Amino acid sequence: xxxxxxxxxxxxxxxxxxxxxxxxxxxxxxxxxxxxxxxxxxxxxxxxxxxxxxxxxxxxxxxxxxxxxxxxxxxxxxxxxxxxxxxxxxxxxxxxxxxxxxxxxxxxxxxxxxxxxxxxxxxxxxxxxxxxxxxxxxxxxxxxxxxxxxxxxxxxxxxxxxxxxxxxxxxxxxxxxxxxxxxxxxxxxxxxxxxxxxxxxxxxxxxxxxxxxxxxxxxxxxxxxxxxxxxxxxxxxxxxxxxxxxxxxxxxxxxxxxxxxxxxxxxxxxxxxxxxxxxxxxxxxxxxxxxxxxxxxxxxxxxxxxxxxxxxxxxxxxxxxxxxxxxxxxxxxxxxxxxxxxxxxxxxxxxxxxxxxxxxxxxxxxxxxxxxxxxxxxxxxxxxxxxxxxxxxxxxxxxxxxxxxxxxxxxxxxx
Length: 415
Fold this sequence. Notes:
Alkaline Phosphatase, subunit A, Gyrase A, domain 2, alpha/beta, 2 domains
């Protein structure tokens, strides 16, 4: 719905139509440490220029700090309590089934992308992974595809065809850095050819899971991303850069994954089947993290004494917090009806799993586990290529920002 000043209202916020092409880039797993290293060493000159002439701050990601809740928060401009998506993987209490979130079934509200496109704004969304494409493109008119499935795009379903010809190369391997670079190159070509007014580009965190800041592979990837961000800006766009979550090392000094298998620990304490543990970080691409992060949900089964269950979990190494459903929903704006009995957080360098047998760590042989999901991965960069108007700048610097404020700042705050 458009307001009297031709603003478009979505989930309690009013957004101005783009005054120039506006491109929001979600750099998956872009921990502030990568940005700090890049600025210090000169490997991200475009972002350094955005820092100098535009706007830069830290923002908080939604909890759990995983891909689905945060990308959905960004495109809806709202927390999970509003849009309903609280993980990549969840337990359906009614059926008892464990469900991978790969489409928009859990979405409870519309997106800014859909509202803009239906108001006549030329809109495009390109994702690295197809699991996000269906969710972020829900209700949207325009171009929406993933680099993972670029070879299979049709005008009827994706609003575009011949994507490989547009970009000039074949569909990337899903376990390659080119999955992300293909997204950016496709966005550049669309901006050159069709001049969409609003674009959302969502990358993959494969490189960040594999390499820390300062590693040659990490520097090469972020340099390539930065070059493309500069190209988008040179084509006349307002470029907004944000992340869905940070990333931390979760390995022992010897290099082994530093994991606490919570369901195994509870079974040893209370007996088999006492509780079921769900890892919300699980998605179709687990080779680089083994479905291990720093946040899990616990559902009581054969033991109904939540106090005893919580006390046992608090005693596990690396655990920093155990909240019941009401507490975690109030603290982190989560949907109450989709929450577990207990939410468990670990420290920066500890990963939490369910049962050892549930996690395939074969893909981690020879390298350290790097992952996310907890509170230590909540702080992310938020950067704009253009300065904010005085009122917006003052407000943005005075109050804690969330990563899902980025569309408000890019559309309403940039003059």
